[in-house]
Amino acid sequence: MKREIGRVENVDATVGGRHEKYLYKCLSPIPFRRYRKRQRYLEAAIPKGFRKDMLFLNGSTVGQIEYAPAEASGLPIHGQSTYVLNCIWVLRKAKG
After folding, report:
1. Is 42 helix (H, G, I), strand (E, B) or coil?
2. Structure confidence at residue 26 (pLDDT)
3. Which of 33, 62, 75, 83 is most deeply packed, by most CB within 10 A?
């Protein structure tokens, strides 16, 4: 049985613009607030390769992944050619 998924969009929130609000929390940010520690981390980590991608289904946030090379991670992990997955989630309604 084939299921109609709808309109799916993957957005890189690290490139600025209207999706910047998603950079400041691991879960969908409602309400949007900038946190100073997080802002300082992002200012240092984004140029080193930090990325956060958001998944939208029919205009609603249904998932995200946040990752960075070890040297840009906020966690004490070291290694060459190592990426750290900080946060990942997909809502059940996006299954399939």
Report:
1. helix
2. 65
3. 62
In angstroms, the CA 17 to CA 33 distance is 16
Predicted confidence at residue 3, as pLDDT, reads 57
Token pair of 33 as six digits: 């607030």
> What pLDDT, in 10s, does the model give residues 37-59?
888 888 999 999 999 999 888 88
Name the residue ranges covered by the structural domains of the chain. 8-94
Which residues, listed in sequence order, are joined to residue 87 by a DSSP beta bridge? 66
User: Per-residue b/e over 41-78, b at no fewer than 16 CB within 10 Å?
Assistant: bbeebbeeebbbbbbbbeeebbbbbbbbbbebbbeeee
Query: What is the model's pTM?
Result: 0.76
